[in-house]
Specification:
Number of domains: 1
Radius of gyration: 20 Å
Oligomer: single chain
Helix content: 10-25%
Strand order of the largest sheet: 8-1-10-9
Strand content: 5-15%
Largest sheet: 4 strands, mixed
CATH class: Alpha Beta
Number of strands: 10
Shape: globular
Mean pLDDT: 85
Number of helices: 9
Structural class: alpha+beta
């Protein structure tokens, strides 16, 4: 009887999901909830994403800044973003290329991502790892920023028991926080370990009071996800990078792209053969992480 009540509370999100994750007893109920919902998942509708003319975005042109042959690549990518948004969503396909030869390991992308998305303690969308390449004495050091790979065949999507995650027509793998039940299946399934659970913790939990900036809402997916009082609207949900979808929809490049001091991150519509991202996609020495997993990640690296 007690477990049934906990299951019902979880599904209705009427209890603190932070307490849910920290209680060992409820952890058992979590598995029970996930398995029961999974059995019913074939009756659940897929997340509906609008397509067609309604997805065309009219973005104002920056008349004071012209794209020239010697322009900063951010200027060109920004102009091409406007061009891509003038097409229906299903006609554009976002891609990111990271040039590891230019990355200096400053972690500006990591920090700016945390600030942009108001990420809580324990949630990082774009970690940067240090990788040794080659064999002694011919060794090289590379820094490897790792956002969500936005896979074309993601491992995280089919394991979700409630269809809370899916692939948009423009290739972005997204999460519906209002549908996610926090079972963690997708977190375990991701071979890149690029999903994490929002347990509702704050960086200032061990201090006398939570700071106001920790209660600021995040605008992910174009919605205002508030942090009312002690708890967050995203608490208990799986979270990950979305290529700053809320920025894209208003004509802005992902935050990590704009803050990269070495201009090592390229972004754009790969369906546009004249775009900078299409140009960079033809460059040699490119790799994808864990290709053997068959996920076909959209994010690629120049090494």
């Amino acid at each position: 009887m007690e477990n049934n009540k906990k299951e019902e509370s979880l599904l209705n999100k009427k209890i603190s999901r932070k307490d849910f994750f920290k209680s060992a007893a409820v952890a058992g109920a979590s598995a029970l909830v996930a398995s029961e919902v999974f059995a019913k998942s074939r009756f659940l509708p897929e997340i509906e994403i609008p397509i067609g003319e309604s997805t065309i975005k009219e973005i104002a042109e920056f008349k004071s800044v012209k794209v020239e042959s010697n322009s900063d690549i951010l200027i060109r990518m920004q102009a091409e973003l406007k061009k891509a948004l003038a097409k229906p969503m299903e006609q554009r396909k976002w891609k990111m290329i990271i040039d590891t030869r230019k990355c200096v390991g400053c972690h500006a992308c990591t920090v700016s991502c945390i600030a942009e998305n108001k990420l809580p303690k324990g949630v990082i969308y774009r970690p940067v790892t240090t990788v040794e390449m080659g064999t002694y004495p011919d060794l090289k050091m590379r820094f490897l920023p790792q956002p969500c790979m936005q896979c074309e065949t993601p491992s995280c999507v089919p394991v979700c028991p409630v269809n809370a995650t899916g692939i948009r027509p423009d290739g972005i793998v997204h999460i519906d926080y209002e549908v996610c039940i926090g079972c963690g299946n997708c977190v375990e399934a991701c071979p890149y370990e690029h999903r994490s659970m929002d347990t509702g913790e704050n960086y200032c939990d061990e201090t006398p009071s939570v700071q106001p900036y920790e209660l600021l809402p995040t605008m992910e997916y174009g919605k205002d996800w508030t942090r009312e009082g002690k708890y967050s609207a995203t608490e208990g949900s799986a979270r990950k990078c979305s290529f700053c979808l809320h920025r894209l929809d208003v004509g802005q490049l992902p935050q990590c792209v704009t803050t990269c001091i070495g201009r090592a991150t390229y972004f754009g519509d790969i369906n546009d053969p004249t775009s900078f991202i299409s140009e960079m996609a033809t460059k040699p020495n490119q790799m994808k992480l864990l290709e053997e997993k068959g996920t076909n990640p959209t994010v690629t690296y120049i090494i």
